[in-house]
Please model this.
Amino acid sequence: MKRFIFIVCITVISAKAQTGDESKISFATTVGTGLSMSEPSSIPFTWQVLGYYNLTDRWAAGIGTGLSFYEKMLIPMYGDIRFQMGRERKLTPYAELGVGYSFAIVSNTNGGFFMNPSIGIQYPLKNKMKLQLAIGYELQELERLKKHTDNYFLKEFEEQLSHHSISFKAGLRF
Model:
């Protein structure tokens, strides 16, 4: 786990250092949680790292990864598209959509489809950094192997879960 986080951090730093035209490449990192809307209920905790290629002043496309904690820890890998609504100002609204797949690193668990549309605002800070606050919807599917024992039988079955939640994220874009 520590090795994965270290590799992501080194990749972000080296990619930032290698870009000659910094206006075309940007990065973001967010942390978030949510309100569960499914049964069984599991309050998620997420950390995401994204790299964007700025297509225009308002449109950006990129890729992201991170960590998601539900019942089990998952690593999402997804494509992301972002639209800034209006010109840059003190509070600038934006819309974002991330779609991909999450991988499980624990045994007896398989990842699944991941989707996270959101809307938010960004506030400029020093050194071209921006504070981001967003609210959205998160869908995370996964499968896990369950075991149940009683006095007579040992049962194993595959459980397919689909977690739906209202997500809240805060982060930095640079």
Observations:
- The longest strand covers residues 130-149.
- The first helix runs from residue 2 to 18.
